[in-house]
Design a protein that fits this description.
mainly beta, six-stranded antiparallel sheet, 13 strands, about 5% helix, disordered N terminus
Amino acid sequence: GDWHTEFIGRIYNTINGEEDDDDFEKIRVIEEFGLQLKKVSNQNSNNVLKGIKFYINTEKSNSTNILDEKNIFVTNDNGSTNVLKTSITDYAVEDVFYIKEIEIPNGANYSLIDTELELRIRKSVDNGAYSLSSYSFVKSGEQPVYRSLSENCLTAVEDVSGNFVILSTSYNLDDNLFTITIPNNVAGSNYNLKLV
C-alpha cells in the first residue's frame, strides 16, 4: 500500500497533511559568512584609522603571499576593510584565517601590530543544513579557545613598541559577519613600517 509515504511522513512528523515544523524554525541555514576588520585609535574608539593594510588569507603569511594583492585588505574612510565573504562547505573542517597588519601609511602616528593572528571557525550540520557553531581568535600558533557565536572574544597582543592592545572579535548573527576591532597605540614618533 502506502507504507513508504506513511514512513516518510513519520520521519518528518507529517501525516495526512498535518505537520510539525517546530524543528525548522530552530535551524538557521546560512550559505556564507563574512569577515571584516576595523581599525580604531586605542585612545578613542570613535577615531577610525584609514589606509592600514592587512594580510588576510587561509594560509600563514610568507614572503610571497603577503605581497599578493588578493590577500591585501585596506581600511577605508570608516576604518573598515571590505568584507571577505566565505562560502560554507565542509562542516567537518574548520575554516582558518590568518590575519596580519602589514603596513601603516606614511605619517601615521601609530605603532604597527606585526603579530599574525588566527580566526578559527567551527561549523556543524543538522538535517543537511550548515551553520556556524563556535570560533576562536588567538595569536597564530597558540592553542585555540573556542567560544559560542554570541560571545565576544578579547585578545591581547603587543605592538612593535612593546605596548599591549586588546583586540575584540564579535559575530553579528543578522549579517553573518565576524568583525575584528583592532586598536593601535600612538607611536613615539612618525614612521612607516612595511613587513615583507
